[in-house]
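Q: Predict the assembly, please.
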Amino acid sequence: MELLDANLELKEIQKLQGHTDRVWSLAWNPATAAADVPSVFASCSGDKTVRIWEESPSTRSWDCKAVLEETHTRTVRSCAWSPSGKLLATASFDATTAIWENVGGDFECVSTLEGHENEVKSVSWNASGSLLATCGRDKTVWIWEVMPGNEFDCIQVLQGHTQDVKMVQWHPTMDMLFSCSYDNTVKVWWSEDADGDWSCVQTLGESNNGHSSTVWSLAFNAKGDKLVTCSDDLSLKIWEADIIRMQSGDGYAPWNHMCTLSGYHDRTVFSVHWSRDGIIASGAADDAVRLFVESKDGSMNGPTYQLLLKKKAHDMDVNSVQWFPGEKRLLASASDDGTIKIWELASLA
Amino acid sequence: MTLGLINANPVVHAKKERVARSEDPHGDDAVDPLEIYDILPLFSILNFVRDIRDPEHPYSLEQLSVLSEESITVDEKLGRILITFTPTIQHCSMATVIGLCLRVKLKECFPPHFKLDIKVAPGSHADEDSVNKQLNDKERVAAALENPNLRQLVDECLYSNEL
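A: Predicted assembly structure:
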């Protein structure tokens, strides 16, 4: 179905309340993407807690299954499930990253990663679950190795950003790490050899068509050959790289700017996420969620992207948007208004 | 926190007479810009230099011309507020603290869906862009307000008694 031709809308399926402060971030458990498994996601908040939500097979709605509290002493800013879905990492303004394990329905904090000098803002697992990355206001990005028995060893502290690092994200198929910052750049970190040192192999800055203000978030398409970034400069930027060349062991292939989507947002864009079937969702400070798709009638310069729809999603800023990793076209959004909403992208009735 | 006043000799202006408005053209939920103004009558920048025994210059932001009626714009339809303030000296390191205090106080006065942008008046501060960027990064603001020392400073500025 050609997305731009179909009459699509974002239908609100459910509004989840429970957090007592703004909800900063949420993450779907990847192990619950299959159709016959109740889907699960985690949310984290300024109320210092993390909530686990699970879909009830009978009612088809999400209920709060657990509240992870009394561990973080400040805002929990971001959360990420390991690829196996067995562990949940939570990053907090209290300068720690907690690792939680689901032990027979109860979530236990099995490890606490310390080291950052101040607020930890983001955490991300690599595709195989062997590495973890964190970043924070201390301008550093930390890479941790996942050892047996829930042990985590810091293998390197990456310096390079000149300001607060807002988010880190591993590439979906390769061990390549991306970080975005208050210094307006996106940095790519890579290690030539398995045991070698990690270094910054590329910086996407203003001089190569990069953003002109804080870059808040980034996301990859399913194939991993395209990247979308969003910023306080009110734009989204699409980047691409020759991933095939990289995957064949031909060395690092740089990311190149493909296009900039400007004029669609009038306030800071906090979050961006790419669905399996190529729809980019953005969450912004104007309380709205926007969806963009590739436009088939691109010029000689390559494909461009078009706005599919804009939806006023919440009463306050949208901080996070995340597509469900399974077949269903579901989108979750988290807001300063303390609520989470589940949306379905469906044809207008 | 340095001892000694940052600006020992501020220029003090007479308080303007508040003109009472007889009609309210905006309706029930309207917020009169002057109301914000009234809530900050005794906001004293220099109160938080605690080591000084006698608080000098117990003047308000109004009297120091840091804020005036002209510096507040409210768009009720869009739900947006823009405040510009003028730090008394070009290198005022208190600019970010003043900005934080403004945010906390104004959050109490406006409905939650209002968006607030705070800036230093153009040309009034040496690091204008840097200060404005910090003041409008809500993640930085949230983290700053979770810092107990900073929070205490802000609370003292906002809730200190009339002198």
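The longest strand of chain A covers residues 288-299. The mean pLDDT of chain A is 95.
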